[in-house]
Amino acid sequence: MKIVSYEHESGVRGGVLIDDTIYDLELLLQGSRQAVHGATSSVREFLEFYGDRLEAISAELGALAGQDPEAHVGAPADIGLTTPVPNPSKVLCIGLNYKDHVAETGRAFPEYPDVFAKFASTMVGPEDEIGGAKVSDNLDFEGELAVIIGRKASEVSEEEALNYVAALAPLNDVTARDLQYRGTQWLAGKAVDGSTPWGPALVTLDEVGDPQNLDLATRVNGIEVQRSNTSYQIFPIARIVSYLSSFLTLEPGDVIATGTPQGIGAKRNPPVWLEPGDTVEIEIEKVGLLRNTVGKPQL
To answer: Could you write out the three-class secondary structure of the chain?
Structure first.
């Protein structure tokens, strides 16, 4: 199942993407035998209520889409898509999680996942421009696989951790390197308003299969700058979810960016920085393609 959030005159609503057509999530649920709650208009609400039964409800909603004309919204090209989860409680990120990326930074392999946080204000959707050009001359790309939590997770084992993952999505962890390198903490470079696009859809784990064997590629203006596979992650997704849940409670809709492979602009010779007008694509096997343009500085 592919889950999206889209703009509607009543506000942002959740939808299901089936055969390049968006159907309203709340209206489809009205005819579902799996439905156990009332109004469920947002993706975060949907995950809170149904994150433990996504595979079962996915098949049912697919069948209902062809039977309920009122739920039909339209093609994605004609509808404004927003961030898949507009209001996540937490946006957590893992740094230094690909072997080749650690090598290009010259650092030692980490013993535990290197965790930092973003904020909802950094997140933008698949149709938005990438922000940050006003405050940074050193914007850098980082193609990543994002994990979206579907069930409340606290102190879960690595063996059970994937049962708490609802879906995956492409994410571009755009980083203002000049801000990042001003101190020992990464926050300033990682939390620029509107700098982190992700989406366009949440692809449920039952549709993707093994999340540890997915090809990932990043392109800038059509030129490939990163290519790897999630099998090269130092800390696999199950371990990341288990580790994070050992000291904080993960909630439905929380986003976890799982790290970027080698090839970032800062480590190229000479460095490659994103400029206004550049187009950045993050493509992940079975998960989707994210394409955004770097915005011009707002005076």
So the answer is: CEEEEEEECCEEEEEEEECCEEEEHHHHHCCCCCCCCCCCCCHHHHHHHHCCCHHHHHHHHHHHHCCCHHHEEECHHHCCECCCCCCCCCEEEEECCEHHHHHHHCCCCCCCCEEEEECHHHEECCCCCECCCCCCCCEECCEEEEEEECCCECCCCCCCHHHHEEEEEEEECCEEHHHHCCCCCCHHHHCCCCCEEECCCEEEHHHHCCCCCCEEEEEECCEEEEEEEHHHECCCHHHHHHHHHCCCCECCCCEEECCCCCCCHHHCCCCCCCCCCCEEEEEECCCEEEEEEECCCCC
Q: How far is Cα 4 from Cα 204, in angstroms, rounded to an integer? A: 11
The pLDDT of residue 67 is: 84
pLDDT of residue 46: 94
- The mean pLDDT value for 40-63 works out to 90
Residues 153-176: tens digit of each pLDDT: 999 999 999 999 999 999 999 999
- pLDDT beyond 70 at 179: yes
The answer to whether residues 83 and 198 touch, using CB atoms and an 8 Å cutoff, is yes
